[in-house]
Write a structure and sequence with these properties.
Helices cover 32% and strands 21% of the residues. It has ten helices and 21 strands. It has a six-stranded mixed sheet, sandwiched between helices. It has a five-stranded mixed sheet with strand order 1-21-13-10-9, covered by helices on one side. Keywords: Hydrolase, Metal-binding. InterPro entries: Creatin/AminoP/Spt16_N (IPR029149), Creatinase/aminopeptidase-like (IPR036005), Creatinase_N (IPR000587), Pept_M24 (IPR000994), Pept_M24_MAP (IPR001714), Peptidase_M24B (IPR050659), Peptidase_M24B_aminopep-P_CS (IPR001131).
Amino acid sequence: MQHRQHESTDQPGAHRVTLSQPVSKVGRVPDAPFPVRRDSLRQLVRQAGAGALLVTNLLNIRYLTGFTGSNAALLLDADSDERTLFCTDGRYVTQAKTEVPDLELVDDRASAAALATRASGRTGFESHYVSVEQYEALSGLAENAELMRTPGLVERLRLVKDEHEIAALRKACAVADAALAALIERGGIRPGRTERDVARDLENLMLDHGASARSFSSIVAAGANSAIPHHRPTGAVLAPGDFLKLDFGATVDGYHSDMTRTLVLGKAAGWQRELYELVRRAQERGSAAVRPGAVTKEVDRAAREVIEQAGHGEQFTHGLGHGVGLEIHEAPSLAKKGDGTLTAGMTVTVEPGVYLAGRGGVRIEDTLVVRDTAPELLTLSGKDLVVV
């Protein structure tokens, strides 16, 4: 199969294409990011007026400890790791000694309850995750503590990625880049195949290149289906002249990538080239606006006004982008009504799109890191129109 691609002037190398048992304790792993993150969280806990924080969200626990199991809780002392407790159950004790070697370990299946009984004084909890019933149960067990609502403390830290996180995100994006390149090179995108065929191959290639999982259900949308922003792959058959929209990502070391590319099968029509170039210009403008101090709605505006000036404002139906990290959708939100401010180290997507119902649509999406000078591009697949 032949495919053509213009050499990109801004993206060289296009298609370059992670009952309670006694407490135990073991030594600390040096240079791990987790103690630093816990120390940063302690400042927020103290500012909230608490002496400890009960963390029950598993992603937040992973962020703070490195633990990857399915049952855990963390009782973070506001002053020291020496009084911080990590709890999981017998299924994960061996794993915990490897992944969390620097904290005292409690073995109990009812992890949050076990740590609530050990809490004392004013103790914060993740009220944005804990139900009323769970709160009442924990309060009854925390006889020596006053549980206080402290929502979003860990998430405030997760907004800005450290270099350990950015390295994982970089790997996840590289896996997605490599999978797309391999898919094209193997002839996996051609008339006669179905959207499901392409999605299956793309996801398997991400696994082959080192992903632990896909980041989300891949979007593969051909022809008129490409005008549906979140179309799910079907048995629709790819045909010459179709737009093919691919929105996909890989998970590496718990961190997600997110990328969209839109291709054309066979010869591209004039309207397709025009629509593609419009979205590309908007994507470039939005990416250039990603900088420290930028208000999120103004980043959205930078890209959106390009599309509005071309008369397609009503066909750009979603926000410009979102944060990405341990979750595929995190803060901040780059949207028309966003009021946050970007900070160096935040990782965001920039993904404008124009969708012409019944004809086809284009979305181009990258994952970028906010840097002091220019944003760091993590998704390196080229963005010139590819015709396969």
